[in-house]
Specification:
9 helices; globular
């Protein structure tokens, strides 16, 4: 059913913007694998990818993606008013709105997602290291947290599904 469902503009935009900002579904699936490999002996990358795809297919997640990426893009082009321009462009440490937006994604799949998100946000493995590199001139204040949240939510979804199988 979902395979033959046509994507609407919001989902299409969310997926396109993630890709245009340098993040592939595989990059997020790698984070899911990182979070879940020690808990599943037979974890397969295709399961990680499938769970990432399901998370991104949710409207609440798409809305968070396009909101956060739009703010990153505007900050990158210096199109926001001060002081928010400087706050977002430099990813000021006391600015927590990016994390709050990301938590709206994590919240879709329950409390295990919160611990996964906190862990991955501190570790910054894989694509998150690149997104957090401030030397590139790119602004990913929101995107790094969104990607981490999608991975955490997909990990939570995977864990919940595995618990029902056992």
């Amino acid at each position: 059913m979902a395979e033959d469902k046509k994507m609407d503009l919001t989902e299409e935009t969310a997926r396109r913007w993630i890709k245009e900002r340098g993040v592939e579904i595989q990059d997020i699936a790698d984070l899911v694998f990182f979070l879940q490999e020690k808990y599943h002996d037979d974890l397969k990358m295709e399961d990680c990818i499938a769970n990432v795809e399901r998370v991104i297919s949710k409207r609440e997640v798409q809305n968070a993606i396009i909101t956060g990426i739009q703010l990153d893009m505007l900050a990158e082009k210096n199109m926001l008013e001060e002081p928010i321009q400087s706050i977002i462009k430099t990813d000021e440490s006391l600015y927590g709105v990016d994390e709050i937006l990301a938590l709206s994604i994590v919240n879709v799949y329950g409390s295990i997602g919160f611990t996964n998100y906190g862990y991955i946000d501190k570790q910054k493995p894989g694509i998150l290291a690149r997104l957090n590199d401030k030397s590139t001139g790119e602004c990913h204040t929101f995107l790094d947290d969104i990607v981490g949240a999608i991975a955490a939510a997909a990990s939570s979804r995977l864990a919940h599904r595995a618990a029902h199988v056992e």
